[in-house]
Structures are given as structure tokens and as C-alpha cells.
Automatic annotation (TrEMBL):
The lineage of its organism: Bacteria, Bacillati, Actinomycetota, Actinomycetes, Micromonosporales. The keyword Glycosyltransferase applies. Its EC number is 2.4.1.44. It comes from the Bacteria. It comes from Allocatelliglobosispora scoriae. This is UDP-D-galactose:(Glucosyl)LPS alpha-1,3-D-galactosyltransferase.
Length: 279
């Protein structure tokens, strides 16, 4: 099982907690591998901590991106000002992993895995470049002003959230998904809305596999389950500004589990980092 995260320095702490949630929710397996695409500085600063965290639990591949991604166009909307340029890194993953890699399960850093991922990992994809969950707030292209660059013929096309993507690596490469997404960002620079997510939706429109909502539940903190994870949620995605590491996040078992996982990650930090965390 190849699981990927892509993030910059702003989300490095949270990526390790999300990784810990994966480890906490899976039965031990010999093939669990993490692919992390991040900055050279994060690789330098975090490699030891990451190896200590995963020691004997999973394999690790660290991929260092150059700073070119920071120059990619971003949206001017204040509604997503909290999203860093690292959002674009996910678009690069399938072209950077080992050539023999057949699929990647990409996960955002602002989520917690709460159950076995094996059924998702084993899902047939056919020729589709990816599988995803329909977005909880934008269900079709025409919603919320429409996808910039889309035609009226696409108004009713289903729209997915890019926080959880089961990537069919050979199909992605063959269909030049990365190249087309980067072209979209440049061509639509002046009107971008949700840059990487809109790009992916337009490039693979009507050619993606629809996943059950339990694999990317974007409303999980509204569920009435104060002391247990609802049975139909395998991945809780804290989409939006309010994150479990922020003050004012909804109290309850989701926040408590996040804090417990973060404490576990901190406990395996190298001595110098552990002192810094404690201080």
C-alpha cells in the first residue's frame, strides 16, 4: 500500500500526525510505504524524526521538490488564503514516484484516518486516472460560480474533492494529467478559484471513479457521535479554516484523538527536537 502526502513547511507537523493516524488504523502489513513530497528544507529538518516515527512500521521515500512550485498561480480569493502553495505539489506526485509504482493513495495533511484502508486500496480503477469522493460543498461544475474555463456542457459534471485521491499512476501519466493541470493553472491564472482542485476536475471530467463518502468525509465534525468514530467514516477530512490543531476547534473525540496522535509523534522526535517541542 503506497500512501502519499505532499506539503510544504507550513504543514509538516500536521502531515506527521496524519501519517500516525494511518499507522494507528491499519493492521501491520509489510508493504506499507509512505511517499512524501516536500521541500528540501523539510527533508533536511525532518528526515531523522520521520525515520524514528516509522521505524519497523512502514517504509519511507522522501522526495524533495525544487522551489518552482511556489511560482505556480494561486487564487486571489480570501476564502482560501489559508491554503499554501504546497497545494500544487500533489499534482506532481505521479511523475516523481518510482516507475514501477502502479497506484498511490494521496491524502491531505488535514485529515485523520479512522479505519482500515485496504478496501479502498484494492478498488478496481480500470483506465480511470483517479478515484475520489464528490465534494460536500461543490457537487457539480456549475456550483459556486462555476469552474473557471469550463464550458456550459460541463455544468452538470460531478465535482470531486482533491483531499483524498486514489491515483492510477500509469493512466495518469499516459493521459498527461499533470501537464494538463499545470497548463490550466497558467491559462486561467487571472480567474482561478480552487486552483489545483478545479484543474484536476476539468482535466479528468467524467472520467474518474466515484468513491463512497466514508473515504473522505468533509462534515465529520458535525456528526453526533461524542465518544466513538461513526462506522461509516474511514477518513475524516477537516476541510476549511477550522482545523483540529487550531484554538476553537470543535471539542470532542476528534480533537482528543488528534492531540493524542500529535503527542505520539512528538514522543519519537530526536532529543533536540523533543526539547524544542516540550518548550
Amino acid at each position: 500500500m503506497d500512501i502519499a502526502f505532499a506539503f510544504d513547511e507550513h504543514y509538516a507537523d500536521h502531515a506527521q500526525v496524519a501519517m500516525e493516524s494511518v499507522l494507528d488504523s491499519q493492521a501491520p502489513r509489510d508493504d506499507l510505504t509512505f511517499w512524501l513530497l516536500t521541500t528540501a528544507q523539510v527533508v533536511q529538518d525532518r528526515a531523522d524524526h520521520l525515520h524514528r516515527q516509522l521505524d519497523g512500521r512502514a517504509k519511507l521515500h522522501l522526495l524533495a521538490a525544487d522551489d518552482g512550485y511556489r511560482a505556480l498561480p494561486r487564487s486571489a480569493s480570501p476564502d482560501i488564503s489559508y491554503i499554501t502553495p504546497g497545494m500544487h505539489l500533489r499534482l506532481l506526485l505521479p511523475d516523481l514516484v518510482a516507475s514501477h509504482t502502479q497506484r498511490l493513495l494521496y491524502l491531505d495533511c488535514d485529515l485523520m484516518v479512522a479505519g482500515d484502508l485496504s478496501p479502498l486500496w484494492e478498488l478496481p480503477l480500470g483506465d480511470a486516472p483517479l478515484a475520489a469522493v464528490r465534494d460536500a460543498n461543490i457537487t457539480v461544475f456549475a456550483d459556486q460560480g462555476g469552474v473557471p474555463g469550463a464550458t456550459p456542457a460541463d455544468d452538470d459534471a460531478p465535482y470531486f474533492n482533491s483531499g483524498v485521491l486514489l491515483m492510477n499512476v500509469p493512466a495518469w501519466r499516459q493521459q498527461r494529467v499533470t501537464e494538463q493541470c499545470l497548463t490550466y493553472l497558467i491559462e486561467q491564472e487571472s480567474v482561478l478559484r480552487l486552483p489545483d482542485q478545479d484543474a484536476l476536475n476539468l482535466v479528468v471530467a467524467r472520467r474518474w471513479v466515484h468513491l463512497d463518502g466514508k473515504w473522505n468525509n468533509m462534515k465529520s465534525w458535525f456528526l453526533e457521535a461524542p465518544d466513538a468514530v461513526p462506522q461509516d467514516v474511514r477518513i475524516m477530512h477537516f476541510a476549511g479554516r477550522n482545523k483540529p490543531w487550531n484554538e476553537g476547534f470543535y471539542p470532542g473525540f476528534r480533537q482528543a484523538r488528534w492531540r493524542a496522535l500529535a503527542a505520539r509523534v512528538a514522543a519519537c522526535a530526536p532529543p533536540a527536537q523533543a526539547v524544542a517541542v516540550a518548550g
